[in-house]
Protein: Phosphoheptose isomerase
Amino acid sequence: MSVERIQQHFRDSAAVKLEALETLSMPIAAAIDTMFAALANGNRILACGNGGSAADAQHFAAELIGRFERERPGLPAIALSTDTSVLTAIANDYSFEQIYSKQVWALGQPGDVLLAISTSGNSANVLAAAEAAHEREMIVVALTGKGGGRMQDVLSDTDIHVCVPSERTARIQEVHLLTIHCLCDGIDAMLLGED
Structure:
């Protein structure tokens, strides 16, 4: 394996993150404010995605329920990608497209937030979850890339779109992970104060 090839991955990742710094800071700050307000009002955050984005949804929920970098009481977050019985029952009895929307309908309440993660912005089940969230009077925070895909058409004026300026899935996922860490840190800072 070429060391130069490995180093290029680091350079490419850093370049996308630096480019995203300017364009994503404001929507991430808005997402933090929205999520904190929901949590402060006794609401919760539901998160979903497919593949690596499902892992990101689980990572986000784990950081809120457990802790990020500082000790605090757990915060209510649910990764909708974790219950295999629910996922397989819905996929089998209805369709894979409904695996998240059915859960949003069952678990979501007005004032909750849906963190919808799709690197392309075109994942049918994530789009359906966003539509269900609107029907449940929830706010959607969407993490996408590749120009935002069809997610742009689903989001309302009160939703927040964090669209990574890249076409490469790996780079988008890397910025999504950094965004998740920013969300967790921002919520903690609002809850516990800046350290």
